[in-house]
Amino acid sequence: MAEKLKPAERLKKDRVPMRAQEPEERINNFLEVPFGYSLQEAIEEAQRCLQCKPPYCVAGCPADVRIPEFIEKIIEEDIKGAFLEIKKTNALPAVCGRVCPQEEQCEGACIMNKKGKPIAIGRLERYVADWARELNYSDAKKASVRLNKKVAIVGSGPAGLACASDLAKLGYDVTIYEALHKAGGVLVYGIPEFRLPKAIVDYEVDQIKELGVEINLNYVIGLTKSVDELIQEYDAVFLANGAGAPSFLNIPGENLNGVYSASEFLTRSNLMKAYEFPNYATPIRVGERAVVVGGGNVAMDAVRTAKRLGAKEAIIVYRRSRKEMPARAEEIEHAEEEGIKFELLTNPVKVLGDEYGNVVGIECVRMELGEPDESGRRRPKEIKGSNFVIDTDTVIVAIGQSANPIVARSATGVETNKWGYFVADENGKTTHPKVWAGGDIVTGAATVILAVGAGKKAAKSIHETLSRQ
Amino acid sequence: MYKILKKQKWSDTIYSNWIEAPFVAKAAQPGQFIILITNQKGERIPLTIADSNAKEGWVQIVYQVVGASTLELSLMNEGDSLYAFVGPLGIPSEVENFGGKVLIIGGGIGIAPIHPIAKKLKELGNYVVSIIGARTKDLIIMEDKMREASNELHIATDDGTYGQKGFVTNIMDDILKKESEAIKDIWAIGPPIMMKMCTRVANEHNKQIWVSLNSIMVDGTGMCGACRVSVGGKTKFACVDGPEFRGNLVNFDEMMLRQKQYCDQEREALMLLEEKIRRQASNG
């Protein structure tokens, strides 16, 4: 058991850095960038925690992870105990430890921010979850109580998985319906291998299956079966199908060959493993130079994927300045280290093609920032006559998603708003008494952890409602 | 799941498989399609439904070997299972009793997906006039089933080895010249160039026409936008807004260019697979 330091000693310690693949090496592979902590590093970092009461970090976590408790267990070198603490509330710790924006959540709320750097809660969560996976340790077992009540969940992304896990532990019979051939939603089709290895997602999905959750793959609710039918067959239905329809720029030339939505580009690479073409049968094309339009996390994922697929130059085109970019700071830094170029305050106006219908360039215009808009960000304005062309083989549009209509159009009595998202209260309740909804299909494209939080709230609300019946 | 219940070879390159897929069979309607994956490393292949039986729980597909993935599919045997099979996808055909004649045109492999539409239209009480065509006699498929699903059946082959010599569009033009008024609606499914030509004939006679677009797709549920087509100047997704569109509004030239997007990769994959098959044959 490691030593428990006095508060003054804890304050003196620096945040333990995480070792990572060097940029010049990692741009040639799809392996995960950071290596994760060793036991020693995890203990060193855990020793910095002040064990606040009440803990601010937990208040910042949508999954209510018992943070001080699991960190304490790390110091005690009881990693299994730490794992069990985390799993009490979070079914996806290896995923969340990697892709949560901790700086805005637990770590953002950490008291240590006032003195220096916050406790690396995400890295510690990741360490504990990886320990369990590497030892093939599982705490998953079917609930001893059987409530004989059935819940259907539409979508096997983070919201659906979190909801399924909580309900299964309470003794519900849970069936997830997934349209794709692999469970995980955005975790498998959206987030690249180098940020979230798919073996990790598979492991956490398997754990949820061990709780007794049934996952029906290749099953499109809205087509194979309607939501109305699910309402008939189940005691409750949770809609967690994600946003799932790509937005385009609506500029000329957008249907040229070589223009991708980020969803298509990432799905080809991540879900279909096009980066291993022709060993895997799905093709992808990148060429010498790739331009990614957008400034969010998805844009960073796409541009770093393009670089790894062999683009000599991969460029972000974003209409505001670096300060306004919605991507996590860490993702932008990783991209910069990998030699990604940034054309900021730049907006595309036209995609240029050759006579065979292939992209050869993208015409852009320079922008300047004006008055703040509704979102509080300064509104970009075109600088007249500043048009210029970037020669490129590939254009990837990463400007967000909108609501996919398939599920909603088979759901009678479940209200949607004018953008097609389900209307749900803070517990996920929709306008239909048997239907809950959560994740991106309620909020619009957001983060994995918010989806996990929404899944957990819906599970709680479903349990409360069904317990009363 | 997704077992190949029956497999038939209809020509050098055309095959039909009956797949065990009860959930898909139960929901399938004319005009819809499925996506299948042969094995773990396979790509998602969209194919229109040729026939289905809810009671027996199967879906029939017809495919032509054109690349590595369809070659791989053709090498699977009865009793083998596909890795994935999902559907029915897309919006069903807008069929009803139109109180008159409907014209149905199927070209080559496109005869398979036109069949359930013809069958349904006839069931609904329409007088179904069908034209099926192919390059040569051996490539005319499902003739008996089409005869059953139609009140009149016309056949055309490019080389004149069967039926009338020439294209389906020649017969289509003749029929419309004679009885344009009586024809209440038209469906045409086949290679893009055929659908483009049928649309041209329909336009000449001021007729509306449905075509079914087999764009390149990935998920097939509106998530990726790979299948986008310009219809009436607007971008549509073939997988969720279609696959059927009014041909009169479709930008076929753009669609045909988009279909060639992965030509080089497809050729590479096919060569590698053929090489592998040769090696296996010589070792075996």
Report on the structure:
With 469 residues, chain A is of the alpha/beta class. Chain A folds into 3 domains: 7-134, Alpha-helical ferredoxin (Fumarate Reductase Iron-sulfur Protein, Chain B, domain 2, Orthogonal Bundle); 150-244 and 402-468, FAD/NAD(P)-binding domain (3-Layer(bba) Sandwich), CATH 3.50.50; 248-399, 3-Layer(bba) Sandwich (FAD/NAD(P)-binding domain), CATH 3.50.50. Chain A has 19 helices and 16 strands. Chain A has helices at 7-12, 23-26, 39-46, 56-59, 67-75, 79-87, 93-99, 106-109, 121-134, 158-170, 186-189, 198-210, 227-233, 262-271, 297-308, 329-337, 405-408, 440-443, 448-468; strands at 150-154, 173-177, 214-216, 236-239, 244-246, 259-261, 289-293, 313-317, 341-343, 346-353, 359-372, 378-382, 388-391, 394-397, 401-403, 435-437. The longest helix of chain A is centred in the C-terminal third of the chain and has 21 residues, at 448-468. Chain A is globular and about 65 Å long. The N and C termini of chain A lie far apart (49 Å). Chain B has 284 residues and is of the alpha/beta class. Chain B folds into 2 domains: 4-89, Beta Barrel (Elongation Factor Tu (Ef-tu), domain 3); 93-212, 3-Layer(aba) Sandwich (Rossmann fold), CATH 3.40.50.80. Chain B contains 9 helices and 15 strands. Chain B has helices at 22-27, 68-74, 111-123, 143-148, 168-179, 192-204, 238-241, 252-259, 263-283; strands spanning 4-9, 14-20, 33-37, 45-53, 58-64, 84-89, 101-107, 127-134, 152-157, 164-165, 183-189, 210-212, 228-231, 234-237, 244-246. In chain B, a hairpin with a 7-residue loop joins strand 3 and strand 4 (45-53). In chain B, helix 5 packs parallel to helix 6. Chain B is globular, with a radius of gyration of 19 Å.
